[in-house]
Design goal:
Oligomer: single chain
Shape: globular
Structural class: alpha/beta
Number of domains: 2
Radius of gyration: 22 Å
CATH topology of the largest domain: Rossmann fold
Number of helices: 13
Largest sheet: 7 strands, parallel
Number of strands: 12
Order of helices and strands: EHHHHHHEHEEEEEHEEHHEHEHEH
Helix content: 25-40%
Protein name: SIR2 family protein
């Protein structure tokens, strides 16, 4: 009988992790976003103006002829992200979430993904098995906006948190970590469809106070009689300037996205090549990740094919996997040897498989195993199979 694994593993989840649950790919999202914008606002609005501006830009700058139907969502959002981040639109730079076109896209991406996400008791079996096999000492790093993993963990009754550390005491030079609770740690590097920021609302309160105005500013979430059941993402004491203090989850997410036109913008990074410039609220999730792996017992990458434009993720995974495969490889830790790196993706032919291996060429494949039939019950068995024993 094998010993129970102590955990201390890292799991990296990409879009391929969620596809078996029925979640849309990026290619599916764009036309549906366009349809919903047109359903609610017609074709004369800031989203369509931005689309035409982008089409003109690509034609005049690159000689490429595009239509609204042939635009690549990530390239379009990269164009908008640069405009917003640099404030090129001046006074039309609407909010921390983006300019008008970006707000349309984020709202409807959240709604579409929510509608396609099964309830926690209707997920495919592989998600429950994955959740069951996770240890409360494991860390899951996900690049997905959806709540599939959270629902699977809630269904099997396994506790989790959505931030790196809980603190017992905040000090002048350092904080005391509260490690009294056993929880799976989930770090959503690109945000989540059920996360919302109260920063704009707090700025409105401050403005009311300075102008000696009674009452509170209108806000669809934070001044709406607790309609959507918002509650803080983090708990316990935090540093006053911790950006995670501004993030709230919604309990009544079905009610929120049931609106014909969602009334607020979820805290998600744009699906663009420039998303890293908006990572500030989530920087705590990245802290120290370049030194991770050395003393971990496993690393699995599921459904993330490492696109060439995601250099920030490439650097992070390069550091993490290099540490993992080069430090203490033949030294037992907690009576276990490190397991092989597990790489899971969906590739149907040799060309696709070779491309995957090439993108992860920094992996020492003598210390790794690859599974290319996608995420499934068999993939879960492959991921958690311990192939090296002390």
């Amino acid at each position: 009988m094998s010993k129970e694994h102590p955990g201390f593993r890292i799991f990296v989840l990409g879009a391929g992790f969620s596809v078996p649950a029925g979640l849309p790919t990026a290619a599916e999202l764009y036309p549906e976003v366009v349809r919903r914008v047109e359903r609610s606002y017609g074709k004369d609005n800031r989203f369509h103006w931005a689309v035409q501006d982008y089409i003109d830009y690509r034609r005049r700058s690159d000689g490429i002829e595009l239509t609204i139907d042939t635009i690549d969502l990530e390239e379009f959002m990269s164009f908008l992200d640069i405009e917003h981040f640099l404030g090129l639109e001046g006074s039309d730079t609407l909010s921390e979430h983006g300019n008008a076109a970006q707000l349309f896209v984020k709202r409807y991406i959240g709604q579409i993904i929510h509608e396609r996400t099964p309830s926690k008791d209707s997920l495919p079996q592989e998600y429950y098995e994955f959740a069951e096999k996770l240890s409360v000492k494991d860390i899951v790093i996900t690049l997905n906006y959806d709540v599939v993993l959270e629902r699977a963990l809630e269904y099997v009754g396994k506790p989790y948190r959505l931030f790196p550390q809980r603190y017992g005491k905040i000090g002048d030079g350092f904080n005391t970590v509260d490690d009294s609770r056993d929880e799976v740690t989930i770090l959503k590097l690109h945000g989540s469809l059920d996360w919302f920021s109260n920063k704009s609302y707090l700025h409105g309160l401050e403005a009311f106070k300075k102008q000696d105005v009674d009452g509170r500013p209108n806000d669809p979430i934070f001044n709406n009689n607790d309609k959507y059941g918002q509650y803080p993402l983090v708990d316990g004491p935090r540093n006053e300037d911790d950006p995670l203090l501004n993030i709230y989850r919604l309990k009544n997410i079905d009610l929120f996205y049931g609106n014909y036109d969602p009334p607020a913008i979820p805290m998600i990074l744009s699906p663009s090549h420039m998303k890293i410039v908006y990572a500030n609220p989530f920087l705590d999730f990245w802290w120290g990740s370049g030194r991770a792996g050395g003393m971990n017992l496993g690393i699995s990458i599921i459904g993330f094919s490492l696109p060439l434009h995601d250099d920030y993720l490439r650097i992070c995974l390069y550091r993490m996997i290099s540490n993992f495969q080069e430090v203490a490889w033949d030294q037992p830790l907690l009576d276990f040897y490190k397991n092989h790196v597990k790489l899971v993706d969906f590739r149907t032919d040799k060309e696709g498989k070779d491309e995957l291996l090439e993108r992860y060429r920094f992996i020492d494949y003598e210390k790794a195993e690859v599974y290319t039939d996608g995420f499934s019950v068999d993939a879960v068995e492959f991921i958690f199979n311990q192939s090296r024993y002390a």
